[in-house]
């Protein structure tokens, strides 16, 4: 808080506390701060309270990009039983794959580089579109949209 700033009305100074505001982070910086490396998708044990949302969804992204349908659907069922909302899963999943697209464009490393070998940039763009489109669909069970988006992601992947 700067000491050189004087309020327009001295009475307002007593009513309005001065607060320092942290600088805004970009979406990429914010997501990077919560990113954790994905664990092997061959470990499809139920997700527990100790598993972070980002890590669980990163595992799902790895399964989709590597073409492992069985693990992907096990992970979706695990996410559903933990109570993570379908829109949260779709948003984190799309953001994670979007970060991969941006990293590829910049020639940077990304946690999903290995899983996405052989997946074209066009396919990645289509997967992001499929995931975001699923946010607009409303089913009686919200996870129906997630499962449909995962199935369509495998088709877009090729």
Concise synopsis of the structure shown:
The chain is mostly helical and about 160 residues long. It has helices at about 10-15, 25-35, 55-65, 70-80, 85-105, 120-135, 145-155.
Walkthrough of the structure:
This protein has 158 residues and is mainly alpha-helical. The chain has seven helices and no strands. It has helices at 10-15, 27-34, 53-66, 69-82, 86-106, 121-134, 143-157.
Provide the fold topology.
Layout: H1 10-15, H2 27-34, H3 53-66, H4 69-82, H5 86-106, H6 121-134, H7 143-157
Helix pairs in contact: 3-4, 3-5, 4-7, 5-6, 5-7, 6-7
List key phrases describing it.
158 residues; globular; mainly alpha; 0% strand; 7 helices
Largest sheet, in brief, is: none
- Span of the ends, CA to CA: 55 Å
- Which range does the strand content fall in? under 5%
- DSSP, total strands: 0
Total helices: the number is 7
Large-scale geometry: globular
Assign a percent range to the helix content. 55-70%
